[in-house]
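Support request, please re-run this one:
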Amino acid sequence: MKIFKPFYIQPRFFYSGLFIIALFVFSYFVPILFGIAQLSILVVLLLLFLDVLIVFLGNNKIIGHRILPDKFSNGDNNEIEINILNTYPFETYLTIIDEVPIQFQVRDFELKLKVRPKKENRIRYILKPTERGEYHFGNLNIYASTKIGLVAKRFRFENEAMVPTYPSFKQLRKFELLNINHSLQEYGIKKTRRIGHTIEFEQIKDYVLGDDLRTINWKATAKKNSLMVNQFQDEKSQPIYSIIDKGRVMKMPFDGLSLLDHAINATLVLSSIALKKHDKAGMLSFSKKVENMVVAQRRSSQMRLILEALYNVKTDYYESDFSRLYAHIKRNITQRSLILLYTNFETLDSLNRQLAYLKAIAKNHLIVVIFFKNTKLNSLVEEKADTIQQVYDKVIAEKFAFEKRLIVQELRKYGIYSILTTPKNLTIDTINKYLEIKSRGLL
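Re-run finished. Output below.
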């Protein structure tokens, strides 16, 4: 049985059989075809025997190995590499079937490759995960055949492996490189002029030409009998908390990822930028209860802690409890902080149910509510309506889009900042708002 296990008949053999059958059928009308059909049987059998001898006899074989990254980046293209060594003394035609993780739902995975004799080849393919978690690979199957192509020998490599999928660290690296190259403005991330002073006092010094007259310290001036000014330094190490709503409203999919995963990817990038701006970065998630909290700190291991916490954030389909979130913030976040709240409100009524808690949080902290435009509805609004049904759909879509803008105005009325953005622009818009708040000294 072990001899027959790797033995596979190729489609070319069956096509040859169909051709021979067709010859026999037409030989009823053209008798000369009967002899050609009989000869064809002998030729196919001879080629089959020869093909089996070439592929299966001897110690020649195909050696394959899959090379995986340490972790996948969620929502990004991740490269998988397969190294193949051909020990056959002739050119070999390979069909590669890799058992990719079940999350991708790929049922027709197949790679074709031609390998020269005694040579090593590399082939790469791309996988794009859309969920965080563990991705399990199965065996690597390689089918080798000759130019005859009637049979193939299967080589199976037990190359089972697990690769964890983390929030988009590739997006994080991209923004870090842009920051190094000073190219952030090309992506819409803008610098804002510094306005006013922070409250972090540094020292009293002698007045020199050009110092701001508003900073003159009159008591020190009177004592020393010369102009003295207060010197301030930029306020640093301010706590920045990213709070992610992981209730059922964040399960809505956009561009292959859920709103929750878009928020997680944005949190990872913003936390990195906050730490580079000498602020303290922290995060937590909430739904029915508050979880995955990382206290805002500025330390070398902070990004690793945030990444691990984001990896474990899962939606639970419950209605999010904003009262519990408020109680947790009041009890655990005592220093005035910038709170970036990733959630989603579809209607003004849904906001009004939670507005009291948002106003209470805004009394002690600077809160920015980040919610999403419905890109499907926006495309519906822009479409031309030709039928009564299309007109009705367009009116409803415009109503929901208008309610989103009303939510922004309602939040502004109570001094609560907001960002209404698309999932695609979430990271850039969030970074812009953070830099604006820092530059204006609002925190």
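Residues 201-232 form one domain. The longest strand covers residues 78-86.
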